[in-house]
Amino acid sequence: MRRPLIAGNWKMHTTYEQALELARAIQARCGMAEYAEVVLIPPFPWIVPLSRQLNGSSISLGAQTCSAFDEGAYTGEVSAKMVAPFCRYVIVGHSERRRLFGETDAVVAAKLRAVLRNGLQPILCVGETLEERESGATRDIVERQIAAACSDLESGQVARLVIAYEPVWAIGTGRPATSADAELVASWIRAWFRERFGSGISEGLRILYGGSVTAANAADFLAVGDIDGALVGGASLDAREFCSIVEAAVERAQRIAEGG
Ligand SMILES: O=C[C@H](O)COP(=O)(O)O
After folding, report:
1. Is the CB of 234 under 6 A from ligand 1?
2. From CA 121, how far away is CA 205, in angstroms rounded?
3. Contact 94, 124 (CB under 8 A)
4. 169 a known binding residue?
5. Distance from the CA of 208 to the center of ligand 1, in angstroms?
6. What pTM value is reported for the model?
């Protein structure tokens, strides 16, 4: 059984005090969620203080991006090697990085390798724009993004990936994909990995949905067999809302564990 993962991407939000308080409130309400993995992905400066604050809880941390390089004269960059003592995950290929900061498939692939090289798990984001969706290109786009990032990886590396399907048009818009749309794309993603790496790897791979996930719609996505969790943006900034999403994941996992 794949353990559901609920990750909160705080993007470039929160002051230092707000970050500590948000993490404290999440820890108090869903810090020991046995059936689901909870990951907070704050801005870089809050990673170290939050790792101290969360010490002893089951919540882990992630970074929102990283450099493709491990160290050197790269002003402003933060490497996977630097965050590795504090984080378990790093997001790579988020559409905001691709669109606003010019990250190409090649850059995403280099970052993904930096994450793996440093013993962390990449959360690889893929997804189509509205134009691409309307022209029927969703499958091609998602497969191209995955192939560019993953095709020459070894099985052991693929086993450490998490894939987040995030349709660009659903991010921050309040207009999520339907669970049927997300199910279809998640099934394409799993099939892509099955064809190249076998069913052992593809069945173990966790696929998240991201894009306007809220407490009100999380259970719909989590009910989909191929969807193993959520990458949550806006709703992760509200402890109550975020923990309700975690609770939906816990309930689903509990039902599966009990054979329901
Ligand atoms: O990384 C998170 C996604 O971009 C989703 O953001 P959102 O939940 O605010 O739509």
Report:
1. yes
2. 12
3. no
4. no
5. 12
6. 0.97
